[in-house]
TrEMBL record, chains A, B:
Name under which the protein is recorded: Pyridoxamine 5'-phosphate oxidase family protein
One Pfam family this sequence matches: Pyridox_ox_2
Amino acid sequence: MSDLPQPASILSMTQCWDLLSSVALGRLVTSVDGHPAIFPVNFAVQHRTVLFRTAEGTKLVSTAINHEVLFEADQHDQVDGWSVIVKGTARVLRSEEELDEAEQAQLLSWTAPTKQHFVRILPLNVTGRRFQFSATLDDALAAG
Amino acid sequence: MSDLPQPASILSMTQCWDLLSSVALGRLVTSVDGHPAIFPVNFAVQHRTVLFRTAEGTKLVSTAINHEVLFEADQHDQVDGWSVIVKGTARVLRSEEELDEAEQAQLLSWTAPTKQHFVRILPLNVTGRRFQFSATLDDALAAG
C-alpha cells in the first residue's frame, strides 16, 4: 500500500457535464422535514440540465418539485473514479414545448410510462472530483 | 415501448446485503442544518454493517458521526437494476479490537491511508428494490 497522498482532482464544468452524459443512473437527494431521502433515477443530460421521469404522487415528487435538490452520479473502476454533484431546483415540465424538448432526450424509465412527469433539474452549482485509489484490490488482498 | 406497468419488486434483507456486498462504491447522505449532503465512498459489507474509511476533519465526518445517515448503493444494466438504502448510525471505530476487525474487510480507499478513520454504519433499517426498465434503449432510440 502506497503512503503517498493521492488527492482528488477537481473537474471542470465541461468535464462534469461530459461525465454526467456518459452514465444513465444517478441519485436524487431531497430533504423531508430536515431528514434526507435518496432516490435512484435514470436520467439524461440535456443542455446542461438533468432530466428524468417519475410517476405522479410519489414522495420523490412531493419533496423535490420546486425545491433545492442534489443530484449525484459517479462511476469507478479499480484504479480511479469520479463523482459529480449538481445542486439545483427541480421543476415539472408542463408546456407542450417543454415536453416536446424533453422527449428528444434518450431517457429510460424504471416505471411504467403512463402517468409520468418529466422533471428537469436546473443547476445552481455543479462540482465534480476525480479520485484515485490509495491501494489496488490486489494490495488490499495481499495486506489482508 | 410497452404500456404494461413493470413495478419495482421489494428485496429481502438477505438479498439486500448480498447485493450490497457485490459492489464497492456507495453514497453516504448526511444532513447539514436541514440541507442534505452526499459523499461517494468506497465501502465493504462486514457482518451486515457498512464499513468505510475517511480522512479526519472532513465535512463527512463532522456531519455523519453519531448521527443518523443514509447509505445507498445501486447497480443497473440496460434491462434492470437494483438499489439498496441503509438507514443507520455512523460510528468511528476506536478500540484496537474494532480496528483489527475492520482491517479484515477488503476495503479500498479513495484518499491517502494516513490520518484515516474507519467508520461503521450500524443499520436501523434496510430497504431494497429491483427495477425493470419500461423501455429498452433500442426502443428509446427508435422512438427518438
